[in-house]
Amino acid sequence: MLILSATPYKAGTFNTDVEDHYLDFQRTLSFLLGQKAEKKEWTEEVNKLLLDFRDKLTGSDRTYRVLKKLKGEIELSGSRK
Predict the structure, then answer these.
(1) Alpha helix (H) residue ranges in the chain
(2) Which residues contact 81 (CB under 8 A, 6 or more apart)?
(3) How sure is the predictor about 49, in pLDDT bands with cuts at 50, 70 and 90?
(4) What's the pTM?
(5) Rounded to an integer, what distance in angstroms lies between the CA atom of residue 37 and that of residue 61?
(6) Burial track 21-56 (b if 16+ CB lie within 10 A, e otherwise)
(7) pLDDT for 3-40, tens place per residue?
């Protein structure tokens, strides 16, 4: 039987936090995956998805940054005309 806490993980850890919530989540994920052959691949995929999600939330998504820069360049070139 597996019993998990209903307390959600915080989305991020700040410098003032005593605990590292991301590391704690990684340990829990590793425990839940147990001895599965695909454990490494699953963990890497979850980490990639979490990083992508963080980037979307914080606006540090590469696509967003590139498009924002391009928009600025277009606006600048339009103002020179």
Answers:
(1) 21-33, 39-58, 62-79
(2) none
(3) confident
(4) 0.53
(5) 31
(6) ebeebeeeeeeeeeeeeeeeeeeeeeeeeeeeeeee
(7) 666 666 666 666 677 777 778 888 888 888 889 899 99
